[in-house]
Specification:
The protein contains 18 helices and 10 strands. The chain is mainly alpha-helical and 406 residues long. A 3-stranded antiparallel sheet has the order 3-5-4. The protein is elongated and about 130 Å long. This is PORR domain-containing protein.
């Protein structure tokens, strides 16, 4: 793709007019390659590693389409009216692994499961078929697996109820006796499935909070990273009858959820899905994301002290060029080639064909023999020159008469 064509998508890419697109492309040498087709034509493309990763992601998304459809069906089955606006589902697009064009593809491709209907607030996705086999939450499946595993591990002759109801807390979580008593009492409340009818539950009751925790637990289990922004949950207050203090609900149940304050917006994590701050079961899309992150983290310059100074200078040049471009005026149709033509062959420009990109220092230990051979040649040449000078010299007296040589 040409840089001129890429400049038309600055708004979609979220780039301001003060930053040059070519500077952005050069920051990721393992992802993008810049090619020169004549002086007035600059294009860029993906590197072979990035292109292979892109096709791998497409293949995984095609194979996971059935799983994505199941996630949407479960989400609609948990809602009050079995209908959610498409604009709200778009907030979960990245968390659920939905494709960018899910409104035009998945929503219309499976009429046997759901359909798109028009509402006063915009198009919404409505469930058309209720599947009782899907109405089983991840918490219920995990509880059944834990029960079977405990029975196999204990292998008791007499099966009796334990005397004390103990709560296994995550590692590093220390609670007071009062907090432990509240968590134990909350766990003693009978489990309410997130797929059950909750229209009769009154707001502010413990049963309603038990159901809300089950819904949040199920939604987090459907996400790729088993985490989600708290702001995204606030968009579904009407569909799931969440309280206004949903953040406080997460904090009241630290045994189930972990609230992270990192970043611009707070996130909530599903504790049981992590072990030592690492996700236990990673989705295949997450593995692709980690590979892409490895390509993005490839530095433009090495971290050595000498190359670091050169890299800082290059970044300063890019910054100065960006400021000059911003002062020249903001045009409606923007292109990088207009401002780069004069600097294509500039010495300060960091092009891919420059030898300065090879920042590997020479290994002097391997060249010892070569250096000695060269040194011997120099010494030999110096001795011959000295001998020739001595041969050409004839000792004479001050008046010019030759002096006797011994």
């Amino acid at each position: 793709m040409s840089l001129r064509g890429l400049g038309r998508f600055r708004k979609e890419l979220g780039l301001d007019k003060k930053r040059r697109v070519i500077a952005l492309l050069k920051r990721f040498p393992a992802v993008f390659e810049i090619m020169e087709e004549g002086v007035f034509s600059l294009k860029f493309k993906l590197t072979p590693e990035a292109e292979r990763l892109y096709f791998e992601e497409l293949r995984i998304r095609n194979e996971m389409e059935d799983l994505v459809v199941t996630k949407l069906r479960k989400l609609l089955m948990m809602s009050m009216e079995k209908r959610i606006l498409l604009g709200k589902i778009a907030h979960l697009m990245t968390d659920f692994g939905l494709p960018q064009e899910f409104r035009d593809t998945i929503c219309h491709r499976y009429p046997q499961y759901f359909k798109v209907v028009a509402t006063d607030r915009g198009p919404a996705l409505e469930l058309t078929h209720w599947d009782p086999e899907l109405a089983v939450s991840a918490a219920e499946l995990a509880a059944e697996e834990n029960r079977i595993r405990e029975v196999e591990e204990q292998n008791l002759i007499i099966d009796r109820v334990p005397k004390f109801n103990r709560v296994k807390l995550p590692k590093g979580l220390h609670l007071s006796k009062g907090e432990m008593r509240k968590i134990t009492q909350f766990r003693d409340i009978p489990y309410i499935s997130p797929y059950s009818d909750f229209s009769a539950l009154r707001s502010g009751t413990r049963e309603k909070e038990k159901h809300a925790c089950g819904v949040v637990h199920e939604i987090l289990s459907l996400t790729l990273e088993k985490r989600m922004l708290i702001d995204h949950f606030t968009h579904f207050r009407e569909e799931f009858r969440f309280s206004q203090q949903i953040r406080g609900m997460f904090i009241r149940h630290p045994d189930m959820f972990y609230v992270s304050l990192k970043g611009e917006r707070d996130s909530v994590f599903l504790r049981e899905a992590y072990r030592d701050s690492q996700l236990v079961d990673k989705d295949r899309l997450l593995l692709v994301k980690e590979k892409l992150r490895a390509l993005v983290n490839v530095p433009r310059f090495s971290k050595g002290p000498s190359r670091k100074r050169v890299g800082d200078g290059m970044e300063d040049n890019d910054r100065r060029e960006d400021e000059v471009d911003a002062e020249e005026g903001d045009e409606e149709e923007w292109s990088d080639t207009d401002n780069l033509i004069d600097g294509v062959f500039d010495d300060n420009d960091d092009d891919d064909w420059s030898d300065e990109d090879d920042d590997t220092p020479p290994d002097f230990d391997e060249d010892v023999g070569t250096l000695e051979i060269g040194r011997r040649k120099l010494i030999k040449q110096g001795e011959e020159t000295t001998q020739n000078d001595e041969k050409g010299r004839v000792p004479v007296f001050p008046d010019g008469r030759p002096r006797e040589q011994w």
